[in-house]
C-alpha cells in the first residue's frame, strides 16, 4: 500500500483547536511552523512537521489530558472528508475498513484491521518517522476510534481490550473515558466486541458516501503526485539517516524507483542527490546543535556519517564554522540548548 509523504492541513484543525481552547497561533509558534498554516490554501505537512504539532500540543495541554480533549472536541464539522465518510458507514466494521484505506490521507499513520466472529481489533502504526513519538499518540488514536463509534451509534460503547506501546504519564483519565483498563504492550491496539462492531450507525448515509468516495479515490491515486522528487528524497532521508542508510541505492529502494529514474527526476529539478543529502544533513545537524545538548559525535551518527571527523569537515564546509562555534553562536543569540526535541 502506497504511503503519502505530505498530508493536507484540513480547515477543521482550526475548529478543533478552538474547541480545545488552544490558540492556533501559539501552537504554530511552539511547533516552529508558519503562522498562517491553517489559513493557507492547499497547506500540507511532512511527517516531521505533523508530529511536531502533536509534541507541541502535548506541551500546551499535557500528555495525559490531550487524548481526551482532542477526542471530546471531535465534531462532524471538524472532520476531514475521509473521516466524515466513515460516519456514513452502516457500522463500525465497515467504517474501520474504509479508515484503513483512507487514514494515510490524514497523517503518517496506518491501521491494521482484524475482524473475527468474536471481536474486531485495530492496530495503529506510524510510518515515515523513527524518532520518539508523542507520548499521547497511541492514546489519542484509541480515544478517537472509541469516540467515532459512540458518535455514530449514540451508544456508550466500551472497548473490551486496549494496549498502548507508550502509556501517558497518567493513564487514569484515558481508562475512565474508554471504560476499560489500558495495558502497556508492544503495539497500539484496541479491540471491540463483535456486537458493538456490528451495531448500526445512526449516521449512515449512502448518498453522502457515494459523494465522498470518488474524491477520496482520486486523492489516493494522486499520492506523491504533487510532491517533488526532492521532497520525497528528503522525507526518506529523514527516516533512514539515523539507521546509517544514506546511499542513493538505499533511497531509490525505499521510494520504489530505479537509481537512474531518481537521478533523472532530480536533474529535471536542477539538483543532484548529493545536494539533497547535504541539505538534509545540514538541516538536521543545525537543529540538533541548536535544540539539544548532544555531542557532535552523536550528531554525526544520527545524520549518517561513518566518523566524527568527516562530519566536522562537512559542517565547516556547509557553514564556515565548526559545530562548537555554531552552537556557541546560537546560545549567544538566546536560543535554548537542552533536551533534544523532534524535528
Would you write up a description of this structure?
The protein has 343 residues and is α+β, with helices and mostly antiparallel strands. Helix content is 52%, strand content 9%. It contains 17 helices and seven strands. It has helices spanning 12-19, 24-30, 47-61, 66-73, 81-87, 92-102, 137-153, 172-178, 194-197, 206-221, 229-240, 248-254, 259-268, 273-291, 296-302, 308-319, 323-332, and strands at residues 7-8, 44-45, 109-115, 119-126, 161-164, 183-184, 188-193. The chain has a five-stranded mixed beta sheet with strand order 3-4-7-5-6. It has a two-stranded antiparallel ribbon with strand order 1-2. A hairpin with a 3-residue loop joins strand 3 and strand 4. Helix 4 packs parallel to helix 7, helix 11 packs across helix 14 and helix 15 crosses helix 16. The longest helix has 19 residues, at 273-291. The radius of gyration is 22 Å and the shape is globular. The two termini are 26 Å apart. 34% of the residues are buried.
List keywords for this structure.
single chain, 343 residues, alpha+beta, 5-stranded mixed sheet, two-stranded antiparallel ribbon, 17 helices, 7 strands, globular, disordered C terminus
Amino acid at each position: 500500500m502506497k504511503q503519502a509523504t505530505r498530508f493536507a492541513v484540513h480547515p477543521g484543525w482550526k475548529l478543533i483547536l478552538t474547541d480545545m481552547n488552544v490558540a492556533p497561533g501559539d501552537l504554530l509558534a511552539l511547533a516552529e511552523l508558519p503562522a498562517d498554516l491553517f489559513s493557507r490554501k492547499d497547506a500540507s505537512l511532512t511527517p516531521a512537521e505533523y508530529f511536531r504539532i502533536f509534541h507541541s500540543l502535548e506541551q500546551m495541554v499535557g500528555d495525559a489530558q490531550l487524548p481526551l480533549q482532542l477526542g471530546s472536541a471531535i465534531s462532524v464539522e471538524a472532520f476531514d472528508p475521509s473521516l466524515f465518510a466513515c460516519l456514513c458507514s452502516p457500522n463500525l466494521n465497515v467504517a474501520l475498513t474504509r479508515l484503513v484505506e483512507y487514514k494515510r490521507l490524514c497523517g503518517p499513520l496506518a491501521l491494521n484491521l482484524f475482524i473475527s466472529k468474536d471481536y474486531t481489533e485495530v492496530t495503529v502504526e506510524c510510518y515515515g518517522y523513527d524518532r520518539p513519538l508523542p507520548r499521547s499518540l497511541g492514546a489519542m488514536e484509541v480515544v478517537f476510534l472509541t469516540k467515532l463509534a459512540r458518535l455514530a451509534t449514540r451508544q456508550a460503547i466500551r472497548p473490551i481490550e486496549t494496549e498502548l506501546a507508550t502509556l501517558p504519564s497518567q493513564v487514569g483519565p484515558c481508562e475512565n473515558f474508554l471504560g476499560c483498563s489500558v495495558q502497556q504492550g508492544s503495539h497500539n491496539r484496541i479491540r471491540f466486541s463483535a456486537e458493538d462492531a456490528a451495531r448500526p450507525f445512526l449516521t449512515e448515509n449512502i448518498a453522502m458516501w457515494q459523494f465522498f468516495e470518488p474524491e477520496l479515490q482520486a486523492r489516493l491515486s494522486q499520492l506523491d503526485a504533487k510532491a517533488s522528487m526532492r521532497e520525497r528524497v528528503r522525507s526518506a532521508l529523514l527516516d533512514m539517516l539515523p539507521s546509517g542508510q544514506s546511499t542513493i541505492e538505499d533511497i531509490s529502494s525505499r521510494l520504489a524507483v530505479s537509481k537512474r529514474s531518481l537521478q533523472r527526476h532530480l536533474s529535471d529539478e536542477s539538483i543532484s542527490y548529493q545536494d539533497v543529502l547535504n541539505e538534509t544533513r545540514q538541516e538536521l545537524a543545525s537543529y540538533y546543535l541548536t535544540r539539544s545538548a548532544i555531542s557532535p559525535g552523536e550528531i554525526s551518527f544520527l545524520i549518517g556519517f561513518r566518523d566524527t571527523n568527516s562530519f566536522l569537515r562537512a559542517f565547516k564546509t556547509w557553514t564556515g564554522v565548526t559545530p562548537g562555534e555554531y552552537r556557541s553562536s546560537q546560545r549567544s543569540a538566546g536560543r535554548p540548548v537542552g533536551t533534544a526535541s523532534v524535528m
